[in-house]
Specification:
alpha/beta, eleven-stranded mixed sheet, globular
């Protein structure tokens, strides 16, 4: 990998965020980021008072806004907020990421948000004001704060979510949309899917993990690669202009928990044309389906599948290595001894997970693992892995020994040149 490249994950959570592992620490985040192959992390959850103090105690900030651990791993200030409000006569629930340039600004953000609600009960705090007000509040503090609509298509809590979202960035932010530069694709979509919506042409796309634990099948499962020196200013410039925004690592969109439509309780999942034919009603319980990302993209798309945005950063799709090992061994528990033994053998041999996923030749893989697993790693790498799509909060599942696929193009091959 080019030494100028930074593989970054800026959608991180602490143990204080609802639904996240109680075992997350800064030390664990660093340990498994190195195993994954990540170079920079967001701090996650800096509005939470206890986590904020831990970050200040354990990380030292340099003059470029980068926070360093005692063992030399870098972080930047980052938090996710949940906004629940009414706009346009409809209830909205939207999640946004906030990146801050330094400790002083992060402190001011905490002070401002603390006047709007409690910060101590959830690392992903919930507020009752609008996205427009969030923009105004952050710009009153610093123009170097970046707001990123996270997991942009997810059904329940996203800017384009089927349950509570908008049909455009401009509808959400109105005239403040000019201050939004970048959107997070989320696990159930890829840049190729988003290129089909022409109203998104002015926005850059990033991918981050939204980890709920420190394990390598969560952290770094999606990431963004920057071609720039490690300063907050450089990262901000890349996000806002697209310059030096090299590529993204995405999961297969079918892996995401809201790619297809369905009902978890009824064990029903449907391709968008099937859902539309049924009037978006579950064929079993006759209640409204949870409409997924693929359906919403089709609703807003004004271009045919296969359209490529000129000059856009490249991307590649891959599932976490532990998912592949578990699928081949026929187990569902990713923390099982056999899965970990194989995973650790590969990490010891090749250094980190990204190297295994993207770089190691087939012949070298065969020296350490069974041929079936080596072939699945290659299928994962070249975009031919098949999955049963995720739906209504259920992750997608790997399908072995079949060529059946469900997704739009998963890989812009130029991405492989960056590893």
């Amino acid at each position: 990998m080019n030494t100028e490249q930074l593989i970054c994950d800026f959608h991180i959570h602490s143990r204080f965020a609802r639904g996240c592992s109680r075992q997350i620490t800064l030390q664990k985040l660093e340990e498994y980021a190195r195993i994954k192959g990540l170079h920079v992390l967001g701090t996650g959850d800096f509005t939470h008072p206890t986590w904020f103090q831990e970050v200040k105690e354990h990380l030292k900030e340099d003059e470029h806004g980068i926070l360093w651990s005692t063992t030399g791993f870098p972080f930047i200030w980052q938090v996710e907020v949940s906004l629940m409000y009414t706009q346009g006569g409809k209830g909205r629930r939207v999640h946004h990421g906030i990146l801050a340039p330094n400790t002083e600004v992060a402190s001011q953000i905490r002070d401002a948000l603390g006047k709007k609600g409690r910060l101590d009960y959830d690392g992903r705090p919930i507020f009752g004001f609008s996205s427009i007000e969030l923009i105004d509040m952050m710009r009153d503090i610093s123009h170097d704060i970046e707001i990123i609509p996270y997991h942009m298509w997810t059904s329940w809590f996203a800017i384009f979510g089927s349950k509570s979202g908008f049909d455009s960035v401009e509808e959400c932010f109105e005239d403040r949309a000019k201050y939004i530069h970048v959107l997070e694709t989320g696990m159930s979509s890829t840049p190729a899917m988003n290129w089909r919506v022409s109203s998104l042409d002015r926005y850059n796309f990033v991918s981050f993990s939204d980890n709920h634990s420190y394990w390598p099948w969560r952290m770094g499962r999606e990431a963004t690669i920057f071609n720039c020196g490690l300063t907050y200013k450089n990262i901000l410039h890349a996000l806002r202009t697209g310059e030096h925004l090299a590529s993204t690592i995405e999961t297969y969109p079918e892996y995401g928990k809201y790619h297809f439509d369905g009902h978890r309780n009824c064990d029903v999942f449907l391709h968008p044309p099937e859902s539309k034919k049924l009037g978006c009603v579950c064929p079993k319980c006759k209640r409204e389906l949870t409409i997924g990302v693929a359906y919403r993209v089709e609703e807003l798309a004004d271009r045919e599948p296969g359209y490529v945005r000129k000059g856009a950063p490249s991307f590649t799709c891959a599932l976490p290595l532990t998912e592949l090992i578990a699928a081949v061994y026929g187990v569902t528990i990713l923390t099982g001894k056999k899965v970990w033994a194989t995973y650790n053998k590969l990490i010891q041999a090749f250094g980190n997970e990204y190297t295994v996923l993207f770089d190691v030749p087939f012949e070298d893989l065969l020296k350490h693992i069974p041929e079936q697993l080596a072939r699945v790693i290659l299928k994962n790498r070249d975009g031919t892995l098949a999955l049963k799509p995720g739906y209504d909060g259920v992750y997608g599942e790997v399908i072995l020994d079949t060529t059946e696929t469900f997704s739009p193009p998963r890989t812009n091959k130029k991405t492989l040149d960056t590893f």
